[in-house]
Amino acid sequence: MKRRVAMGELPSRPRGAVQVRIAEVRSVPADEAPSDQGTCPPSGVRVYADDGDAAMGLRVVSLHLENCGTRTHRLNGYPQLQLLDEDHKPVNSVKVLKGGSAIASGTGADGTPQPLDLKPGERAYAGLVWRNTVGAGVGDPVNAPYVRVWGKPGAAPTMVIPEFDLGTTGKLGVGPWKKDETNGRPVTDGASGR
């Protein structure tokens, strides 16, 4: 039986023999590390990705931005993204499209961008939508494990690890920033994942 195990998750008294094999290691620059808790970064905002949701080749992951600083943080529009390969090199073969409906309807990653003023403690999210489909003879599948995210132009970037397995589609849909009205609980409109 295979399953994913995070560090520190093994039970203190496992039943039977337990073997763990490290399949792959992901790393991000320390000054771009995502965080959903702990000390607030100097930028005054935390950016991170959730675990997402996947079904029948459709993938949906949400980016989350929390104002953990002391001043209001203004957003308007879409997060700026740079997809990166395993070596942190840019992946330029993917078209980043505005809105989730560019990929599939009903993902919750659509809407008109609205100006958002996030007071300290408030959050926003934006959906990322793609399909993992491979067409015969269409090209090589694209995998981009990392994405560098800017919440708004001029902001400090954060690198998250959504593990984009884009197949041969060459497209990623990104939704606009939306205010998270759930007080930190997962958003349930389809775009937030878990």
What does this entry look like structurally?
The structure is a single chain. The chain has no helices and 14 strands. The protein is globular and about 50 Å long. β2 (53-55) and β3 (58-67) form a beta hairpin. Helix content is 0%, strand content 33%.
**Helical stretch count?**
0
Quick one: biggest sheet? 7 strands, mixed
- The outline comes out as globular
Q: Number of DSSP strands? A: 14
Percent in strands: 25-35%
Radius of gyration: 18 Å
- Quaternary class: single chain
The helix content is under 10%
Note poorly predicted spans.
Answer: 186-194
Order of helices and strands: EEEEEEEEEEEEEE
> How does the helix and strand content classify structurally?
mainly beta
N- to C-terminal separation?
24 Å
Mean pLDDT: 83
List the defining traits of the structure above.
194 residues; mainly beta; 7-stranded mixed sheet; 3-stranded antiparallel sheet; 14 strands; 0% helix; 33% strand; disordered C terminus
Itemize the secondary structure elements and their pairings:
Layout (H helix, E strand, L loop, with lengths): L44 E5 L3 E3 L2 E10 L5 E3 L4 E5 L10 E4 L17 E3 L4 E9 L10 E3 L1 E5 L7 E3 L3 E4 L3 E4 L3 E3 L14
Parallel strand pairs: 6-13
Antiparallel strand pairs: 1-3, 2-3, 3-8, 4-7, 5-10, 8-13, 8-14, 9-12, 10-11
